[in-house]
Amino acid sequence: MIKIAIDAMGGDFGPEPIIEGCIHALEEKSFLPILVGDKKEILSFLPQYYIDKVEIVEASDVILMSDQATNALRRKDSSIFKAVELVRNKKASAIVSAGHSGATMTLATLRIGRLPHISKPALATLMPTLGSTKTLVLDVGAVVDCKAQNLYEFGAMGEAYVQKIMGVASPKVGLLSNGEEDSKGNELTKEAFKLLQDLDGFIGNVEGGDIFDGSVNVVVCDGFTGNILLKTSEGVVKTIFTMMKENMRRSLPAKFGALLMKKKVFSKLKKQVDYAEYGGAPLLGIDGCAIVSHGSSNSKAIKNAIFQAISYTQSDVNATIEALLTKSQTKSS
Question: Are residues 94 and 38 part of one domain?
Fold first, then answer.
């Protein structure tokens, strides 16, 4: 049975939504959750029926969102450290955490380790599109200062993930730039462009709008750009929904129209842009599986993060990443 280590203490709202999400996941899939944190507090939220369906690992420390990620390695009694160690020691196949994202990424990279041909891991996230398939964007915050080789590796990782997890046989990989022409970009993207041409799915430069129109499956960028892109997109969605609500309140016909569209249009639109539908962002490039969830994750987000971890574990994403990069090295040598 697949074992998933879950940081029960991470997140903005404590263990309650995390344990609730874990219970919802158990209702739908067969796996063994290993809840890491304050045992007494965990048991206070865990219904009697589920006590023998989980394992609990005691952790006396919690890394708060305000803490420095660089201190995570020294805090060996923290819930995130102990959860990562379970994966490192092969006692769990994956870790899910809604706690301090910097600490999670640091510990996963340094304690679990990277895949042999990966210089730096990348945090990947799915963006909504006009089509039925979402666009995977990476990196969105793991590596702020990138080299061209990093971007090339991100492309290979994204291609492998979309193939194995999303079921796209021949993913289209694009490099985020300020224009689609081959000559566009800065020094970093121009150098990365040359390297990315080794990937079978590379289609060249793409612009910001291409992320959302379904024309590309993977968009590669450095973590600084990707994080701004992600947070800007979240802000735009929130603003649009707020503006729609405000304008509907001002007009009686608009109120009636809103009521008619609420179930069919608004509910579908909200589902498409709701981060809880995806659960979390996989940290690609480590020798295992780590899903980094939003700090404000609700139970639905945690459930879907666990499902994502299970899917990742059952796939051969990491082997595919290594095969792509090994093939490239053989070509160039």
Answer: yes
Asked whether residue 135 falls in the same domain as residue 255, the answer is: yes
**How far out from the chain centre does Cα 206 lie?**
21
For residue range 269-300, list pLDDT tens digits in order.
Answer: 555 555 666 678 999 999 999 999 988 889 99
Residues 113 and 56: beta-carbon distance below 8 Å: no
Q: Is 270 found in the same domain as 179? A: yes
pLDDT of residue 248: 65
Whether 179 and 220 map to the same domain: the answer is yes
Q: What's the total number of domains in the chain?
A: 2
Between CA 288 and CA 91 the distance in angstroms is 12
Structural domain for 150, as ranges: 124-276
Q: What is the torsion angle, in degrees rounded to the nearest 10, for the CA atoms of residue 229, residue 235, residue 241 and residue 242?
A: -160
Query: Which structure tokens are listed for 65?
Result: 């969102």
Closest among 111, 121, 94 to 7, alpha carbons compared: 94
Do 138 and 272 lie in one domain? The reply is: yes
Phi-psi region of 69 (alpha: psi -120 to 50; beta: other; left: phi over 0): alpha
Residues 87 and 14 in one domain: yes
For the stretch 211-265, pLDDT in tens is 988 899 999 999 999 999 988 887 877 777 777 677 666 666 665 555 555 555 4
Output Rg (C-alpha) for the chain, integer angstroms. Answer: 21
CA 91, chain centre distance (Å):
22
Position 279 scores a pLDDT of 78
